[in-house]
Amino acid sequence: MNTILDVRNLSMGYGPISVLKDVTFAVQDRETFAIIGPNGAGKSTLFKALTGEKMPDAGIVNYDGKDVSQLPADERVKLGFGRTFQVARIFPAHSVRDNVVVAIEARERNAGRKHGSFFAWRPAADIVEEAEAAIATVGLSSKRRIEARFLSHGDKKRLEIAVTLALKPKILMMDEPMAGMSPNDRAQTMELIRQVRLDSAVTVLLCEHDMDVVFGLADRVMVLNYGEIIAIGSCGEVRDNPNVREVYLGEELHA
Fold first, then answer.
1. CA–CA dist 207, 173 (Å, integer)
2. How many Å apart are CA 219 and CA 35, to the nearest integer?
3. Distance (Å, rounded) from C-alpha 211 to C-alpha 169?
4. Tens of pLDDT along 52-105?
5. How would you classify the pairing of strands 3-14 and 17-28?
6. Phi, psi dihedral angles at 134 (to 5 degrees)
7. Burial environment of residue 146 by CB neighbours within 10 A (0 to 12, 13 to 18, 19 or more)
8. For the chain, which terminal residue's Cβ has fewer other Cβ atoms within 10 angstroms, N or C?
9. Could you give all domains of the chain from N- to C-terminal order, each with its CATH number?
């Protein structure tokens, strides 16, 4: 496998408070890599540094062989970054289909492509067709004309995944994708993530508190504590690591 994300000596803080301390790790192409740790460990700050929402104080973020450490978020999206959020970021007053259409049109405009004379005010037929296919992938075809604000929490999350995938990312960064979901929604979304990885050949970087989700999806797991890496390895290696059990997992989960 090729390395798609190579992070070296990343450090970041807010004023005098150091949040990330010399963080170094690599993510392989097409793997599912999970980041876990207790509250305040630095997970959200790391996501911000990787996606360009915040710039690191020191260190390098190499993406697909390119140093993107100081690139803003929109430029990283053009290179292949996709991100979902703990609270789904969608257009609530627009239909499910229109949410996806907007993402596809944005991608096509960024690439300098046009889709007929109606592109500026009405989506072209091929864009609508692609949007319908994306909606079907996440199981929302029957709700495609519903305004997004009327969707359930789980459906909003699935719509956000469809919108993000419409950008055709190479790496999909998911911040707490199961937060607030019912057990049924959680199981469906786990299966969706597995299928997306297979169908889209996308790399998944996952920040998640639910250990059943992490151990059910991840190829490898990295554990942060107070801004430092305390373990990286397979699910079994991390589960059996005494330091990880002490600071995060606890003995009950290990047993």
1. 8
2. 11
3. 26
4. 999 999 999 999 999 999 999 999 999 999 998 877 889 999 999 999 999 998
5. antiparallel
6. -65, -40
7. middle
8. C
9. 1-82+221-255 (3.40.50.300), 87-168 (3.40.50.300)
